[in-house]
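# nightly structure sweep
# worker-07 picked up a monomer target from the shared queue
# config: single-sequence mode, recycle default, output format = C-alpha cells
# input follows
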Amino acid sequence: MRKKKLYYSTTHLIMLSFLLGIIIGSVLLSLPVSSASGKSVPYIDALFTATTSVCVTGLVTLPAFSTWSVFGQIVILILIQIGGLGIITIMSAIMISMNRRLGLKSRILLQDAFNLNSISGVVVFLKKVVTGTFLVEGAGALLYMTVFVPQFGLRGIWISVFNSISAFCNAGIDIMSENSLCDYAVNPMINITTSLLVILGGLGYIVWWDVIRTARNFRSQKFRCFSRLTLQSKIALSATVILLLAGAVLFFIFEYNNPLTIKNFSLFDKIQVAFFQSVTTRTAGFASVPQQDLTNASSVVSLMLMFIGGSPVGTAGGVKTVTFVVVIFAALSAIKNEDEVSLFSRRIAKQSISKAVAVLTVSFMIMFISTVLLSAVTDAGIMDIAYETVSATATVGLTRNLTSNLNIWGKIIIIVTMYLGRIGPISLLIAFNIKKEKKNIITDPVEEISIG
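# output follows
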C-alpha cells in the first residue's frame, strides 16, 4: 500500500517555526543556569516565559529582572528578537550573510512570513528589514543609555540594549523592576524613546520604505508627499495618528482626577503619561501607571486599542489598523448601500475585505473563548480577565496584576492564546483549510436571508 506523503505549506512551516522556538526556549529557561537563584524554575513558568518572548507579548508570571540570570535574560532577548523578526527571517538573513543563495521555496516562505503580495524583490526587502531593525534598535539603546548608565553603571548598557529590542519588537519585557516603567512615568527621555521605538516597530516595514521613497522626492513633490504614498501607507499612517491622539485625549480626560494615576502630576506630566498609555496599548506592553488603577472608562478604551493593535508587516500584534479601517468602511458602504468600498480615491479589493472580516472574526473568537475559559478557572473580576485575554490575543502584555496570580490552567490558557494571537488568524484559517478536489462545477443555489 502506497504511503501518503506529508505536505507542509509555507503557513504550516511558519507556525511550526514559532512552536519550535518556544519549545527550545522553554527547555533553555528551565535549566538551573538560566535562574538567578541557580535553581530551576517550574517548567510551566519557563514555557510561559518562552511563549511570551517568542510571541512578543510581555505577560510574565515571574519578574524578569529578579528571576533570570544574565544567561536567562540573554535567552529571553534572543527569543524576543526572533519573535519580532520571525524565525524564517532570521534563518534567511543568516544564509544570505553566508553568501548562500535563496531558492524559490525559501523566497515563497519569506513572502508568506512578511505577508507580502508578491515574491518580487523579497530578498532586497529582507536585507532592508534586518538593516533597518538593527539601526533603529541601536539608536534606541544609545538614547536609553543616557538614563540607565548614570543610574545603573555598566549594567545600564545591557538594560538599554534589552529595553530597546523589547520596545521595538513590541514585547514589553524589561529587566529593571517589577513595575515595568512606572518609576519612569514622568521621564521624558524614557517616554519619548520607548514611544518612538514602539511606533516605528508597529507601523510596519512596508510603510517605512514607502515613506522613505516619498521623502526622497520631497523637493519635486512639495506638499503632495502624502498623496504619493501607497494606499497601505495612507491607511496605516492615518489610523495610527488618529488612534494615538484619540487615545491620549481620552486617557487624559478619564484619568485627570484619578488620584491613583495622574491627578497629582503637572499638566505636562499628565499629557506625557496619557500619550504613553495610548502608545503602549498599541501592543507594546510597557506600563507607566498600574493598569489596575485605571478608571473603568480608561480600561475599556485600552481594551479597544489593544484589540486593534499596530499595522501589518511590523512587530506589533492585534487585528491591525488596516484591517480595522477596512472593516469599518465596508460596514459604512453597506449602510449607504454602495457596491464598492473606497478609501483615498482607491477601491478596496473584495478579497481584501473578506480577509479583513475573517481576521477580525477569528481574533474575536479566540479572545471570547479564552475569556470564557479563563473565567471558568479563576475567580478574578471580569475586567481583569478581559484585560488578560485581549492582551494575550493581541500580544500586548499589559495586565491588571492577574498574570502572576494565574493557576496552572490559567497559564495554559494564556500560553495557547498568545501563540494563536502571534501566528495570526489568517495563518490559522489557511493551516486548517483542507481543499477538497471538486468533482463538478455545479454550485449551490442562492437564497436570500435577512441580516440585522
